[in-house]
Amino acid sequence: MLNRYPLWKYLLILVVLLLGLIYSLPNLFPEDPAVQISTERGDSTVGGSQLERIEQELRDAGIAIKAVEEEDSRVLIRLEDDDDQLPARDLIAERLGDDYVVALNLAESTPEWLQSLSASPMTLGLDLRGGVHFLLEVDMDAALEQRLEVNASAIREQLRDERIRYRDTQIEERSLTFTFANEEDRDTARGLISREFPDFDYASEEDGRAALLEMTLTDQAVTEIQDYAIEQNLTTLRNRVNELGVAEPLVQRQGPNRIVVELPGVQDTVAAKRVVGATANLEFRLEARPDTPDSETQSFPFRNDENRSADLMRDVIITGDSVSSANRSFDENGRPQVNIDLDGTGGTLMNRATRTNIGRNMAVLFIEHKTRERTVMEDGEEITEREPYTERGIISLATIQSALGNSFRITGLDSPTEAAELALLLRSGSLAAPIYFVQERTIGPSLGAENIERGIMSVQIGLLLVVAFMLVRYKVFGIFANVALALNLTLLVAAMSLLGATLTLPGIAGIVLTLGMAVDANVLIFERIREELRNGLSIQQAIQAGYERAFSSIIDANITTLLVAVILFSIGTGPVKGFAVTLSLGILTSLFTALMVTRAMVNLTYGGKPVKKLWI
Predict the structure, then answer these.
(1) Backbone angles phi and psi of 437, in degrees to 5
(2) How far apart are CA 227 and CA 287, in angstroms?
(3) In degrees rounded to 5, what are phi and psi of residue 104?
(4) Sequence-distant (≥ 6) Cβ neighbours of residue 423 within 8 angstroms
(5) Are 335 and 359 part of one and the same domain?
(6) Domain for residue 118, yes or no?
């Protein structure tokens, strides 16, 4: 029988439309403006009585509170009005002081039953939703110092292997100086080192009875180290941003030593800054023996007990750069730990060091580069200077029971939050040089609320014009097309929400274009039905022929457009990708609604029934 679908096709269409409705629903629940309270390290929260006083002060200030949620390491205060965010943050920050960090946030308001189905609203881009903007500066001097430290450690190991005795090692700016007891040892060492380290200019000097070998990095080597520091930091920051789950972030170089990071939709500057700006790294060192010369040892405090310290060897076994995978877990006593897997080189070095030192203690040294600001007077004006400093602390000192390989664990961490962040930093890689925050701010929609409203209005106007045209031109069949158009928009929103695609203003343009193109298929089909009716076919035959003969033309036209959208996505960046995503998804959803949904409605209305006149 003509124009009848089998039951399974109707059920398939119904299931797809139902899923589309469910996964588009979260977009009807906008996020709540909120203020988040946490500590800098995220390991404690606000007390009950203190929180009650804060709530009362907010109400006294005329700030309406929607809800207060207490979680493991933070308090989230949902507000009724966006304009209350900044006053609420300032009031809470003044009340709590420097012990807590108060940040703006946007709290998801999707009902729990939708969240249980993994349904969430679309992610909005920086131009529609705002986000966090960081301007970071790479410490080039520290990059050179770190490279010199690595070279010094390698040279010391080489000298010990060759049994060449030295007294001391000094690092200053871009130079590395070794002190030897006599000229003979120095000259032998120079011949050995110069072959392995060609990036230095060498000079022999005398200092009383001691013989000095001064190694200065060449200008070319300095440039290469600085470029490597920038590129490596860019890669590491991109990995960290990906771990944060931010959609379409911007991480790019600005000038010779600065990096711009923009995170759309993120207003929790605390967590973002803690992860993006963290310069933490690990070093694995052996504990010094009592008879080890002072020149080969360094003393460090324990991170969770500054009154306790240990003497470690200056030579590093491996650093966090050798970590290939890291995950947080808990030990048999419920304490947080980080499980670590090393790459091939790191595993070999760890095995070599531990195999010959069973029974000796090995320390995990946590290194973090920070800055503090101080105000100084210059020419009668107060100027804020940034002073970098480095904190080093032992988080674990354990006895080597057996030779270690590629996998082991780190214990001695203060909280699960610290363990999770350390694992994240190790997974994403360490920074090649410390970075400092030059500028940080939470920014609003760059195009403003007025332009956002115009973008939404363009969708509405486009939809109304298409609806009016289809009704006037095709009457009852126009109703079918308009229903399919509304369902197409619903499916498009659901697909973008499911895939986590980011909606930008160019993306809205892609939706408007999709709405205009969505009825093209129906126009081809309906005009073909009219033509078949004029050729003398019966109504049922004309409907059947209209859908079948227009099919190939519809597919050809949409595939060519889809190919263009794929090319735009592959070679474009930022806004161009946003446009390509909405256009591609819109083509797929419009094909489904035009070819299957409208056909199902036509079949249910006319299929298998005697029809005297077709309103088309």
Answers:
(1) -80, 115
(2) 35
(3) -75, 150
(4) 326, 327, 328, 338
(5) yes
(6) no
The structural domain count of the chain equals: 4
Sheet containing strand 65-70, edge to edge, reads 65-70, 75-79, 32-38, 101-107
Rounded Cα distance, 176 and 213, in Å: 8
549: domain range? 7-26+448-606
Residue with tokens 């129906």: 522
pLDDT for 128-159, tens place per residue?
777 788 888 888 888 888 888 888 888 888 88
Distances in whole angstroms, Cα of residue 348 to Cα of each of 356, 358, 427, 608: 13, 16, 19, 76
Task: Cite the DSSP H helix spans in 535-574.
Answer: 539-571
DSSP 418-443: HHHHHHHHHHH---SS-EEEEEEEEE
Measured CA to CA in angstroms, residue 135 lies from 165, 253, 259, 529 at distances of 47, 10, 6, 61
Report which of 405, 410, 436 is spatially closest to residue 423, judged by C-alpha positions: 410
18-69: pLDDT as tens digits: 999 999 999 888 888 888 887 655 555 677 788 888 888 898 888 989 888 8
The identity of residue 433, as a single letter, is A
Q: Which residues contact 456 (CB under 8 A, 6 or more apart)?
A: 508
Share of the chain above pLDDT 90, in %: 12
Instruction: Label residue 299 by pLDDT band (50, 70, 90).
Output: very high
Residue 75 maps to which CATH number?
3.30.70.260
Task: Quickly count helices (H) and strands (E) in the chain.
Answer: 17, 23
- What's the token pair of residue 611? 């029809």
In whole angstroms, what separates CA 15 from the centre of its chain? 34
Secondary structure (3-state) at 550: helix
547 vs 456: CA distance, rounded Å:
33
In the block, residue with structure tokens 């109703």: 479
Angle between helices 416-428 and 269-276 (to 10 degrees): 50
> CA 33 → CA 55, 199, 225, 546, distances in Å?
16, 55, 44, 52
- Burial of residue 525, with CB atoms counted within 10 A of its CB: 0-12 exposed, 13-18 middle, 19 or more buried: buried
